[in-house]
Structure formats: C-alpha cells, structure tokens
Amino acid sequence: MQRVYLDNAATTAIRPEVVDEMANVMKNVYGNPSSTHVFGREAKALIELSRKNIAQRLNVTSAEIYFTSCGTESNNTIIRSCVNDLDVTRIITTDLEHKCVLESVKDLEKRAKVDVIRLNILKDGNIDYDQLEELIKDQSKKTLVSLMHANNEIGNLTDVKHIAKICQENNTLFHTDTVQTVGHYDLDLKDLGVDFASCSAHKIHGPKGAGFLYAKKATHIKPLISGGGQERGLRSGTENVYGIVGLSKSLDLALDELDAHISHIKEIKQYTIDQLKEAIPGVAFNGLSEDLEKSLYALLSIKLPFHDSLIGFELELAGIAVSQGSACSSGAAKVSLVMSTLYTDEEIDQMTPLRVSFSYETTKEDIDILISTLKKIAAKHQLQNA
Ligand code: PLP
User: Fold this and answer.
1) Sign (positive/negative) of CA torsion 382, 384, 385, 386?
2) Cα separation of 185 and 191, whole Å?
C-alpha cells in the first residue's frame, strides 16, 4: 500500500542535503565547542557560522540568536524570562496558542500570580484586534503580548507587524511564536519589529532537537537552564553542533527554494480544496484556512459535514497520515481547544475536523488518494443517515 504523508505541520522529512551536512560534522568535528584547543575551536566555529547565517537570513544580528533544543524550549524560555527577569506582570494571549505557550502562561498565572488576559476569538478564528489595541494602551502593568504568527491547527495568520507597532508605541513586549512560519515565508524579523520569536528545525525539513529563539538586543532575558554558560549564558549545556549545522542548512534550503515551494504548495492546497468541494457536498474549512493569503499556505483545516470520531483510524488503514486538531503533542484524538473555541458543542457533534499539511514533496496523487478515501467515508455516513 502506498503511504501518504499529509502531516507536515507536525513534522517534516529531513532533507538528504541536511543529513549529508550533519553526517560530515558527526564524523569529523567532535570537539567540545567550549574547549580552547583546535578540536573545540572547529566545533565552535561551525556554531558561530550557523548563527551568523541564520541571523543574516532573518535580517537580525548574530547576538540576537540563541540556539535551543526546539520550539517548546524557545517559547518557554522567552515567556518565563519575561516574567522572571523583565518585570512583566500581565500577559495578553489567546486560547489558540500552541500548548507550550498555553502551559507556560498557565503556570506563571498560578505560581507567579501574573494577570493573564485571553483575547476574544472571532468566528473566523482571528483575534479581536480592537480589543487588543485597547488593552495594550493600558500601561498600568508591564505587559507581554504573546500571539502566534500562524496557528498550527487552522492556519490563520496574525498581523504581527501591525501588533508589533502598537506594542512599541506603548512600551509593551511582543513575542510571536514563528515555529510554523520561519522557512515558510521570507521573514525579516527586524522589519516585523517583534521582540521575540522562535523556530524549530524539524518543521522545515531539518533535524529534530534543534531550534533557536530570537531576542531583540535591547531585551535582556535570562536562562532557564544554568551551568557552563554556553549560548552567552542564556542556555547552558554542550551545544548540539550537528543539529545547529542542520538547522542552518535546512533554513538555507527552505529560503533558497522558497518561491518554487510556495507556488507548488499553493497549487496543491487549491487542488485539495477544489477536489474536496466536488467530492463531498457540504464540506467547509475552519477559520480562514480556505484563503491562501490569510492563512498558512501549507496547511488546510477541513470541516467534514458529519461526525466521525474514528476517522483517524480509517485514514490510517488507507495509509494516510493526517492529524485531527493539532495532535502534534499527544496524538490523542479528542476535541481540541481551538475547535471548542470556534464551535459550540452541537456544532462539534455534527462535524469532523481534519488537518492536512503539505510540503514541497506532496503530489496531486497523494491528494487523489486522500480524496477518494474521504469520499468513501462520506458516502458511508450518507447511507447511515438516509
Ligand atoms: N509552536 C508551534 C506553533 C508549533 O506548531 C509547535 C510544534 O508542534 C511548537 C511550537 C513546538 O515545537 P517543537 O516541536 O520544536 O517543540
């Protein structure tokens, strides 16, 4: 049976070019980057070259990039340090953030007694920008705004440049989780004007276990992990040298081939939308997912017009890997917080959400297999309801 992978928002296949580069480092550069002898200096040089490259590609300085193990660590470090070290006593965020942000914020709310404001979410999955602007203007408390750039479940894009401007004008810190957008868009972090951002290599055909956080020079966050003082004191622990090299290489490949990838993936997404509409009457899309410009082009959040709690298994039997909700954390197929924010219980009882996410490797043949399987599942539900 042909296997079809449509879960690229959860993770991507590592590119052979990245593997080659990493294997070369694994075989030949094994010094500890903190050692002062030549073996260590070689490893250190690779880290600094990678940092410089990543910084240049995102139009920031090397001093603003700190390597971490993943997006989760980057987001945790930023949010917790804003409260612990930068005197933040109020966080403005949403219920639609990735779990690593939701849980960090919840923990701070409980333990550090931080005021947390969760923004209203409109029917289309967007935040209420007017409410946000009003809240930011209240400067009675030092505030951090934490809003993801692209939602990992429905794909809605946040206007981070607009929010960054309002935050700047009102002495407010702004963190945006860019785990789903670095390498998918040509981001200029300086121009966007955000204070903090995050990245995870495995979302862009790089290795698992490597990521970075961006912290604007003027913001002096402190470490979660202390020890030998690596990463200029922000993140102790011997560096994942080949992971960092792989991260830099994967970002290079993603950005060098960006235009071709965007046009291919957009075509695949539009094809999926068109084929679904033809095959399954009543199909719809969650949030702004159907809009190729207002949502992440690599992700489509489908709203099937029937309830099927076993759909994940049925697709699995047909060799198709997708995700229900975000599912990149636990794998559990329960109603996600995002869906329960967007829909009432009655609405949820009459639908099935399905997230399919594409890569430059996804083909129309993959989509045809998905559509014919979904068509059969939909027909079964029609028969049951007849
Ligand atoms: N933020 C978003 C928006 C994500 O989609 C993910 C991935 O699941 C993360 C953070 C966490 O990244 P990582 O898997 O590298 O910890």
Assistant:
1) positive
2) 14
Local structure of residue 29 (DSSP, 8 states): -
Q: In sequence order, which ranges of 29-67 are alpha helices (DSSP H)?
A: 38-57
Tell me what the pLDDT averaged over the chain comes to. 95
**How many C-beta atoms surround the C-beta of residue 279 within 10 A?**
16
Task: Find the helix packing angle between 241-256 and 258-279, rounded to 10°.
Answer: 70
* Tokens standing for residue 229: 């003082």
70 is annotated as an active-site residue: no
Coil, strand or helix at 224 = coil
Q: Is the CB of 179 under 6 A from ligand 1?
A: yes
Residues 353, 359, 363, 369, CA torsion sign: negative
End-to-end CA separation in angstroms for the chain: 32
Q: What is the mean pLDDT of residues 14-37?
A: 98
Q: In the chain, pLDDT over 90 holds for what percent of residues? A: 89
In this predicted structure, which of 82-86, 166-170, 221-225, 340-344 has the lowest mean pLDDT? 221-225
Query: How is 151-188 classified by DSSP, letter by letter?
Result: -TTT-BBP-HHHHHHHHHHTT-EEEE--TTTBTTB---
The reply to whether ligand 1 has any atom less than 6 angstroms from the CB of 79 is no
Say which residue the tokens 């030549």 belong to. 38
- Whether pLDDT at 325 is above 70: no
CA atoms within 13 A on the CB side of 319: 9
Task: Find the catalytic residue in 100, 167, 199, 328.
Answer: 328
CB 358 within 8 A of CB 265: yes
Q: Which atom of ligand 1 is nearest to the CA of 328?
A: 8
**Radius of gyration for the chain, computed over Cα atoms and rounded to the nearest angstrom:** 21
Q: Is-contact 171 219, C-beta < 8 A?
A: no
Shortest CA distance to 273 belongs to which of 283, 259, 263, 262? 283
pLDDT class of 113 with cuts at 50, 70, 90: confident
pLDDT band per the 50, 70, 90 thresholds, residue 326: very low
Q: Is the CB of 184 under 6 A from ligand 1?
A: no
**Secondary structure percentages of the chain, helix, strand, coil, to 5:** 45, 15, 40
- Who's near 386: CB < 8 A, 6+ residues apart? none
Please give the Cα distance from 282 to 104 (Å, whole number).
Answer: 38
- With tokens 């917790």, the residue in question is 80
